[in-house]
């Protein structure tokens, strides 16, 4: 989504390389962005936590993808990598095509998120083959600095920008209408969690927190990705064990995040490991819904506790349960929180400011100037 905001503004100068097909391709094409899909067999099975050796199929996939990006990069001025996989491919392609590589870091590169072998690869590539790094938070930047020790002038922090327009539009629709649209109970108190289903995202903590709260429902918006189907199965089993089948709603992947957030009473960010940024936190603020966020990582840079949101200790069920009760019982306080949160989000995470900063950095590294309609172009890669 953050890449999309940039692409929409420089659509005539970029080509996006996707490493797998899916809804994002159509979203880009609808925005008139040039898209190439290259998804060799085996490559998609690589994960942050993996074994010591690279499977033969995955190795062939890396070579094929790198060659594809090398071919494209020869007619472009810069490679802009937007995920970990894209960073690896982009680094290799940049070395062989003699093009600068900008890596937009959207992860916390720490043992909580990556196995030691992958951290070693990230350290080596970022030090030797990446021209510049854009980090999406101070937390992301610090983790990379701790790992690789990059010179300060090789890393910049640019916070994500999120368009308030869709959230403002959703605010005009009655909540009951939105709930009926998605098959949600109109009278229940809904606590929504918006992220892919993954253990470190902490949906299991939310289920425990609402287990003894009759009338409080959990709404899980997101699907299991990257081989995390086992965790989704564990969540469904947890729901049965807790006896809350009628109060938990698995909605899977959804595109109308503004409408769904508006349908909630509270949005809960429950990650048990440090979040690189916390896009869902800003989205909740724009949706004018109270946000409870875990006090770690990029979340600490987005909200101020009890000013425009509420913090909880990561993984602390009792703390989360208490904060849900507090917001449920203090509607006047909630009204003040959401007003301040909306103002904070609009001021600090404006998409135009974000895109201008990113494009300026890409121009600086690539040696071109899109602002003056220069026809130089950029190759973008995203896993």
From TrEMBL:
Domain Glycosyl transferase family as annotated: residue spans: 179-333
Protein name per the record: Glycosyltransferase family 4 protein
Domain Glycosyltransferase subfamily 4-like N-terminal: 28-164
Pfam family, one: Glyco_transf_4
InterPro entries, per database record: Glyco_trans_1, Glyco_trans_4-like_N
Domain of life assignment: Bacteria
PANTHER family: GLYCOSYLTRANSFERASE (PTHR12526)
Database matches in Gene3D superfamilies: Glycogen Phosphorylase B (3.40.50.2000)
């Amino acid at each position: 989504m953050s890449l999309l905001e940039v692409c929409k503004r420089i659509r005539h100068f970029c080509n996006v390389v996707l490493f797998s097909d899916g809804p994002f391709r159509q979203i880009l094409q609808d925005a008139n962005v040039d898209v190439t899909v290259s998804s060799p067999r085996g490559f998609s099975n690589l994960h942050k936590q993996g074994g010591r050796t690279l499977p033969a199929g995955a190795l062939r996939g890396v070579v094929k993808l790198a060659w594809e990006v090398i071919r494209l990069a020869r007619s472009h001025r810069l490679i802009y990598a937007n995920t970990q996989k894209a960073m690896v491919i982009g680094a290799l392609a940049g070395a062989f095509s003699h093009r600068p590589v900008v890596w937009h870091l959207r992860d916390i590169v720490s043992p909580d998120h990556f196995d030691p072998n992958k951290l070693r690869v990230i350290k080596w590539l970022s030090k030797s083959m990446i021209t510049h790094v854009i980090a999406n938070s101070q937390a992301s930047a610090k983790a990379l600095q701790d790992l690789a020790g990059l010179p300060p002038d090789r890393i910049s922090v640019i916070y994500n920008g999120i368009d308030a327009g869709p959230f403002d539009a959703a605010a005009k629709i009655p909540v009951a209408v939105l709930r009926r649209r998605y098959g949600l109970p109109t009278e229940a108190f809904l606590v929504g969690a918006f992220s892919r289903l993954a253990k470190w995202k902490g949906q299991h903590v939310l289920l425990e927190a609402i287990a003894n709260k009759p009338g409080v429902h959990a709404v899980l918006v997101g699907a299991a990705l990257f081989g995390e189907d086992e965790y989704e199965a564990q969540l469904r089993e947890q729901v049965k064990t807790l006896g809350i089948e009628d109060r938990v709603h698995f909605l899977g992947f959804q595109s109308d995040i503004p409408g769904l957030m508006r349908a909630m009473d509270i949005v809960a960010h429950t990650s048990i490991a440090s979040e690189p940024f916390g896009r869902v936190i800003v989205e909740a603020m724009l949706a004018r819904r109270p946000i409870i966020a875990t006090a770690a990582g990029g979340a600490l840079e987005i909200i101020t506790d009890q000013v425009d949101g509420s913090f909880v200790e990561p993984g602390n069920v009792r703390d989360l349960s208490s904060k849900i009760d507090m917001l449920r019982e203090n509607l006047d306080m909630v009204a003040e929180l959401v007003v301040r949160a909306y103002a904070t989000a609009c001021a600090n995470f404006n998409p135009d400011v974000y895109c201008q900063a990113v494009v300026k950095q890409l121009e600086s590294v690539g040696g071109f100037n899109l602002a003056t309609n220069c026809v130089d172009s950029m190759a973008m890669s995203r896993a």
